[in-house]
């Protein structure tokens, strides 16, 4: 392609921006009204580093929505259909969020920082307004704000060595989505075992934007022995792993059951969470679409970053939201949202692409790549 | 600069995308999760065309939030502090939106399409979730959706000739923000007198995305006699005119009084709109900051698309959200949000820029450029 991205005050820069430039960032997208690095020039090399080594990512675009006050826990429970059971500070969870009609509106990670203070680490939609609306309409005693917190991800099988080497052996015992608040060389951080890949990884939630350059250099130096390099949320790995990208894989009428997130919807819990009635109905009726993988028997670009409509025998069948050449499987694959009835029927679906019509055969997620992968 | 923008399903393409490519689009930003053309390669030439000729813009990123149903009017009145008085289908209005704490969360145009059907033509924040939250929490009988509507703007002093030539002499009598629904060569449209410039302009709200190419060509052909060319919301003209860019000129704690929008806040009306109590308090206490222009006596880039912090005597004073070289005034100007106390004090403020500290002297908006300008 080769179109330039415009800068301006409306789209904020990350606190790590200068460091990403210094390290050769080549492309950006916009995510939560911020510039998000998407390439350092060689996405396939970045893929191999992610699945076999270690990579560091500016993911400050994962903004935190902070809920603070006596009703913070109550609001957190209202905002997700997931049954949060006992909430333990220091143990995060993946918490899909739905509106009153059961539509998926974000799929963030909830971090209970303290008893009365929560962070929601959001995907790409303006959940600060949403959380404020629900809190205010219900008269809750909670302040909803965006704190000075910017995550830096360290991802890949060698990430554990880098992060444990920096902060101590306790990092090795962190369970999935567990986190700990620390100070390191004067830098206030939350160290969490998390990240948008299925490789073992960590996210360092920097709590003082003025120390971004210092943190970046510390991580880069510590990773040198493991050949760490800057990278980005990886387009190829996320397709192989079937990780959801909210807003790409979803449309305006997607429910969590369609996305394979039914296990995070508990309509039997006592909490009267937003969307309970609608989700109960959708659950009882059964989802009509599903998020699935596809094998695509055609020659395509290595990363065709486009949305393609799917059909079957002339009928609309859904859409493909991302395709790539899978280095792990050595063939073209994709992910998308498709009608159950059609996916369960006979024959391949047809994707309408700029490269002509190509056949797409449904396949289970995640794709069976041969290397180590942590399942969450 | 020169960074590439990444594509992908998460950031949608406009229905006019192919036409903008065919016409030489050079750069994009992202607005409401969509690609927004921001340059065809020569922004200064685009400026001159806008203030003296006619320009056509893909502004499909101005998404419409449709409120439909018996409570549509009630919801519209709840969503803005503006007193809507008598609502007449066909007459749009600029309607700042605030949250319960009186913070500005969008500054859209409201179009009453029919008695029970409204469009909110939004700036860059996810107001569909907000509108749905308020509607559902209050149990209103209204459906909130995003219809297949994509505005194409025709802006500049010669826009009236192009649009009246195409659709008829009635266009000349359209008052500001008035609109009419028509069909032209089989294309369903709403023709409105509006647009994000202070030149006389129109927006054609295309109601069938599949006819985008056809509409583009019709407008381009009709504009040929007036030397129409593709352009974009113009960075320079909007600074001279003091037009607000939500998200650029505002921060997370900006109220409408600060932005000079106090005339659109009616706390005495009967409607119990969202934010009424908070806005009454802010009104009574008086705004502490104001949106203002600046004269900048320094050599800067023609368009320095960055946010700069302002100080005065070592104290934080606010920020500048956009600066440019004004062809109309032949000097550097900017806009920003600054503490009243400091703006009313003595001496220039100081902006911290990558080009060193530069003096910034408050100036009234809009800037006194010498040419014709329509005041709304």
Describe this structure in words.
The structure is a homodimer of 376-residue chains. With 376 residues, chain A is of the alpha+beta class. Among the domains of chain A are: 17-63 and 148-238, Probable tRNA modification gtpase trme, domain 1 (Gyrase A, domain 2), CATH 3.30.1360.120; 64-145, Aminomethyltransferase beta-barrel domains (Alpha-Beta Plaits). Chain A is 20% helix and 32% strand. The first copy, chain A, has nine helices and 23 strands. In chain A, strands 13-14-15-12-4-16 form a six-stranded mixed beta sheet, sandwiched between helices. Chain A starts with a strand and ends in a 13-residue tail after the last strand. At the A-B interface, strand 1, strand 2, helix 4 and strand 20 of A face strand 1, strand 2, helix 4 and strand 20 of B. Strand 1 (4-5) of chain A pairs parallel with strand 2 of chain B, so a sheet runs across the interface.
């Amino acid at each position: 392609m080769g179109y330039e991205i415009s800068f301006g005050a409306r789209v904020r820069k990350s606190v790590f921006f200068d460091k990403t430039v210094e390290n050769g960032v080549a492309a950006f997208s916009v995510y939560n009204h911020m510039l998000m690095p998407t390439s350092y020039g060689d996405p396939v090399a970045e893929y191999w580093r992610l699945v076999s080594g270690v990579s560091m990512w500016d993911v400050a675009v994962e903004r935190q929505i902070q809920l603070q006050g006596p009703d913070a826990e109550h609001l957190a429970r209202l905002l997700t259909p997931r049954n949060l059971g006992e909430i333990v500070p220091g143990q995060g969870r993946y918490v899909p969020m739905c509106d009153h009609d059961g539509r998926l509106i974000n799929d963030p990670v909830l971090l209970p920082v303290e008893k009365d203070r929560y962070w929601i680490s959001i995907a790409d939609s303006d959940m600060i307004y949403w959380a404020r609306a629900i809190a205010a309409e219900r008269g809750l005693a909670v302040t909803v704000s965006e704190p000075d917190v910017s995550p830096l991800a360290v991802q890949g099988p060698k990430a554990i060595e880098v992060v444990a080497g920096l902060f101590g052996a306790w990092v090795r015992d962190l369970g999935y989505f567990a986190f700990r608040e620390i100070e390191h060389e004067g830098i206030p951080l939350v160290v969490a075992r998390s990240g948008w890949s299925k490789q073992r990884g960590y996210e360092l939630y920097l709590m003082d934007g003025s120390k971004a350059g210092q943190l970046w250099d510390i991580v880069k130096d510590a990773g040198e022995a493991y050949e760490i390099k800057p990278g980005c949320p990886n387009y190829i790995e996320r397709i192989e792993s079937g990780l959801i990208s909210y807003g790409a894989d979803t449309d305006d009428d997607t429910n969590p059951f369609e996305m394979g997130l039914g296990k995070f919807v508990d309509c039997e819990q006592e909490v009267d969470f937003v969307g309970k009635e609608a989700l109960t109905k959708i659950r009882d009726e059964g989802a009509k679409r599903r998020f699935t993988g596809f094998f695509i028997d055609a020659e395509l670009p290595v990363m065709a970053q486009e949305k393609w409509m799917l059909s079957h025998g002339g009928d609309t069948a859904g859409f493909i939201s991302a395709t790539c050449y899978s280095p792990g499987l050595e063939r073209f694959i994709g992910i998308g949202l498709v009608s159950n009835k059609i996916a369960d029927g006979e024959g391949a679906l047809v994707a309408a692409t700029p490269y002509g019509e190509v056949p797409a055969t449904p396949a289970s997620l995640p794709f069976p790549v041969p290397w180590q992968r942590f399942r969450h």
